[in-house]
# Entry
Amino acid sequence: MAKLNPNLRDVVLVKNAAGAIAKHGQVKAGQGDELVRAYERARAQAEALVARAWPEDAAHFASEYPKAISIGTTAVIAGSVEAALGPRRLLDEIARGEAVKVLAAQLEAWAAGYQEVFETEQRLAADAEARTAAEAKNAERRRGVGFAAGSDSGA
# Structure
């Protein structure tokens, strides 16, 4: 049996987490910062996968999928939230939630692309393994078929 790619599980987890964020309905007061934290967790999982599987792509990943989201008077940086005081706070939080949905959709697309790559690799490996096994079986059958020494060839 073909060996499973250990990165496939992780990329599916990232895709599902990012997809749930991206597909969240209209962001309401009190939801924006939670969506941001959920994005940070999904992004951290993806970043760990990139660091493990493709360390040469870490800088590119970091530039394409940012940790920070700045909206209005509030900046959200992975791991910390600096909330501004005043009436704009809730509007800013909602705006951050909406902005992070876009980032999450991009992260979901990234993960879906790698999922497709990994699944294709798995299918190709399984097909190659099955083909090799079938060829070995056919070769074994061919060795068993034929004429025994001294037999009549039927002519």
Observations:
- Helices lie at 6-22, 32-53, 58-64, 88-144.
